[in-house]
Amino acid sequence: MIRIDNPYILTEVEIIETIKETEDTITLRVESHKDYTPGQYNMIYIFGIGEVPITISGRSEGVIEHTVRSAGDVTKHIVSMKAGDRMYIRGPYGNSWDLNQAEGRQLVLISGGLGLAAIRWIMEEAIKQKYRFKSILSLYGSKSFDSLLYRYNYDRWFSEIEFRITIDKPDKRWKGNVGLITKLIADSDIQENAVVFMCGPDPMVKFSVIELCKKGVSLDNIYVSMERHMKCSVGTCGHCMFGPFFVCKNGPIFRYSQIKEFFERKEV
Amino acid sequence: MDVNLLIQKESLKDIFQILKKTYQIIAPVFKNGLVVYSAVEKFDEIAFKKKDVQASRYYKIDDSSSMFSISKPVNSLKNFLHPPEFKIMSVKKKNGKLEFLYEDPEIKYAFFGVPPCDLNALLILDDVFINKNDHSDVYYSKIRNNIFIIAYTCINPVDSCFCTSFGYKTEPEKGFDISITELQDYLLINVGSEKGMKLMENINHRKASIEDIKRKEEILRSTEKNIKKIDIEKIPDILYKKIDSDFWEKFNKTCLACTSCTQVCPTCFCFDIVERNDLLSMESHRIAVWDSCFNPSFATVHRFNIRESVGSRYRQWLMHKFAYWIDQFGNFGCIGCGRCITWCPSGIDIRNEIKQLSEENDQNR
Distance, in angstroms, between A69 CA and closest chain B CA? Predict the structure, then answer.
């Protein structure tokens, strides 16, 4: 007897296409007809090894995208998967970015490294609904030229919105901005009443918020997608606990003013 | 339901026999110097007329003249409803496809002798796993729906007890099927559910008199007097204020991060999910295993432990019990059973820590 509400039930999906992003990162295009919203994540299961939470980095008719970097036992296997392979997932979990918050205002998207995966889908949605915002600014920081993600999207993004990239440790091939994302924030035209969606490593978020405050952006208007160690993803196992929040179900997206007192403290 | 009946002490055995037909009976059992909840087949295995003596780093079992004198067994109901290890599912590869077999526990437990603190802890776990969880835990709820509880009035609070600090009573208040208060020559039964009522219909009984109820109230009063209370009202606010305090640093030295406290705690619910592979059958089992916020792997993301210092892990534990839990589930996560005080090998007494925090807070005002 199987109970339908068992949250651990996995669904088989087929990988339609894989796109090699960098040396250790791929994007999987997976067939799925479920309802998803930008900002949510799935748990991806690998037989005999385990599960990982992976954000949904893109969506088109009947297809979702997951961008995965080989960082541990499970992800190492995921990046070796090929088109036609079957994969097992459960989800979606977590809350979503809310574009209504930015209605009539400047929308600023900030991402660092793989954080762009959590921003990409909402960026595409924002582009589709461009008329709703005063302007869209997307800032993306990458460690190196080789770790740049979604290069095949850049031309379109450059033409549709103000999309700016900075590379911390570039080589000769790079002609653009150099330095950390915080520098790019400082150099960009960000309005006081802008609404910011951000995803990146904790230190990046922390210092980006400081730069945004200098621009007069309110902490109430900054939204952050957080990464924690999710195991059950339904708010029961306790691993992702962050202050009083379960990142897996109360998040992963939080209004910064809501989490400030925990985020800015060590080891919470 | 407020039905109070009197039964002969010998009738307890009849209750045992009736329940045994339907349930696996779990009762406090005396073995290896400890009283623990264990599966029992015979009535005589139950640790009647034993009492525990507990204090910080001290545990001893003595004889008692009363049947129900155990303040609480070492383990708790958590061990049965949310066991240290349980299988979520088995996965098998067949013709390149995976087949999943999800666990669906059929076990029916009757808990034969539960003190009020463990009942209170169970109600807290109900909130965590069922009532205040959007995806109620299938394993916990399945077992939970099939249990029978015989609770009893506490008469032997130990030195580490502080349940009354949270407003709890020394008698079972709710969530039981029948509760027992031991009087001189009889057992006073309070019926707490339809299931309990049905059981009592098969047992010789008479209605309890007002005098019997009065005697019970006397017992409650005298027990309550023996429980040390601590002031917890302002603790959630104080903890939020003291999150940065250097108060937590001493735990880097005093706390061994041994996870004893989280294992004996009847409300600590955190678990890990691990894969256990059988190379012969080529099956993989997804197993939920108790975890602890004191383990270094607990908050590790990409090989980076967010709570590297043991002090920060102790803070996480204490703040979860006394502050975060209230935001998450509307109640304290502690019921004052004092197990963590008895079993901390380092002698950390949560009551002293809370007291110290309050005093520091008063001084800084």
Answer: 11
